[in-house]
Structures are given as C-alpha cells and as structure tokens.
Design goal:
GO terms for molecular function: ectoine binding. InterPro entries: Ectoine_EhuB (IPR014337), Solute-binding_3/MltF_N (IPR001638), TAT_signal (IPR006311). Keywords: Signal. The structure is a single chain. This protein is of the alpha/beta class and 291 residues long. The chain contains twelve helices and 15 strands. The strands form four sheets. Strands 1, 4, 5, 6, 7 and 15 form a six-stranded mixed β-sheet that branches. The relative contact order is 0.21.
Length: 291
Amino acid sequence: MGPSRRSLLAGGAALGLLGAAGCSRVSGSGAEDGGNLLERLRSQGTVRLGIAGEIPFGYIDKNGEFTGEAPEIAKVIFKRLGVPKVQPVPTEFGSLIPGLRSQQFDVVSAGMYINPDRCAQVIFSDPDYRMRDAFIVRKGNPKNLHNYEDIVKQKAKMATGTAYAEIGYAEAVGIKQSDMLILPDQLAGLLAVEQGRADVFAGTTVTVHNVVKQRNSQRAEATEPFQAYVDGKPDIGAGGFAFRPEETKLRDAFNVELHKMKKSGELLRIVRPFGFTKEEMTDLTAKELCS
C-alpha cells in the first residue's frame, strides 16, 4: 500500500462479531454524471461504513456502541446529507479498498491515509486530520529512541503493525522488514515491549498514546510525536474517507459538509475526545496528497 499510510487493523477480530449483516448492497450507477449512490442512500436511510477497528479511529466501545474519530464525523455529515443511520462493516485494513470496490460497504470510514497508490483505486474526501508518529518504549526509554534513525543507531528490535506505514518509514532508514516484529495491532505492540520481545513499537502518535494510557502501563511509555521522513523529505500522513471512483457526487457533497465543520471548529470538537488536538487539524486537500 506504500509508505504513506496510517495503519488500521486493531480490533478486527472482535468487531467481526458484528458481522456485515443488515442493509443490502447499494450499488452506484450513472458513473458518467457522478453516480447516484447518494440518492440511493437517502432512499434507504442507511450508509454502510467500512472500518478496520482501531482505537481511536473507528471501533466498537465497551458498551457495544459504534464510535471513533471517523465514524463520529460520518454520523454528523451523513445525517446532514439526508442519511440518518450509519452501519459499521468491520474488516481488516487490507480488505478496505477491495471491499469498497466490490460494494461490501459504501464508504471507507477508517482514517485511511491518502496517497497516490490508493488514489489510483478510489477517490478521497479532503483529509480530516494529519498525523505524526510516536513510539512505545520501555519505561524511561533506556535506549533513547525518538525516531527511526535512533533504532538503527541503537540496533534496537522494532515492532509495528500489519500494513502499517511505519514499515515503509523504517525501511527508508535501512531497517529490513524481515528484521521487524510485525504484529496485528497496537495492543500487541505494547505487550511486546512490556515483555521484552521488542525494544520499540512504532505507530501514530494518537494510537500509541491512547493504548499506553488506557492500559495504564507500568513498564512502558509513549514518546513525543515526531515527523517521519522518506528520501529526505517529510512524509505527510493525512487521512480521509474513501469512495468508489464513480461516486464523485457523494464525495463532493461530503466535502462541502466537511469544510463547513472545519471552518466552524465543529470538526475539532468532535474528534477532541479521541485524543486529537489542533495540532492534527489540516487544510491539505486530497488533490495535493494524491499527487
């Protein structure tokens, strides 16, 4: 999937309990004029959101409620577009784009990083956030690990998640994927560090800080966020919602509401409870990231 990717895989197994039952598939047609999916969704009253089950981006909470940064944004926007209900369809991250294209769900609502590889397969809303990386390290950070170059210098054992962008960031500084410990999610990463199977787990700053805080770890801590680089240039991780290529009407209508929320400050108010701050807000566009 390329390096410019915020990973989203955690919790997929648990979310699988929900299944993909419910509304029948809604296919878009009329691709020549931007598709008619929005009209179909309004008629049906429900939109199916593909998620990959990672706190805080999209997950089922302890009360069985569908929530997270991306779903909460989607709930507001789709209601304003005349679609009052959202239905989660859990899957693994690597299945999100194939699932969208095969109409298993209508929109990817998983905070997916926008990059040229993905833009060749789907169309994106403008990003609703941008993100830097952070590490989970042992308490006190004994190996003084603050970026990927430090991992190389200290010959530290690195762990990260399946399909995570952090794999590409590490490879960019010379760490072989075969030398990494690839794990299913950030909780597994925290446990690997606590148990000494890895010196560091790499992920996004919000994900890393959330799992350490929620677990109240006594043996591990999260580092300060830092910017990852590829080929000497900062790699911008910015995520948004993905749509099938023919559904430009739906994407454009979604963008109109998203920009209203950005301008009013409502977007930040919605995502702040999930650990997002003004630092993660962005005015980047999908067009910029796709190119």
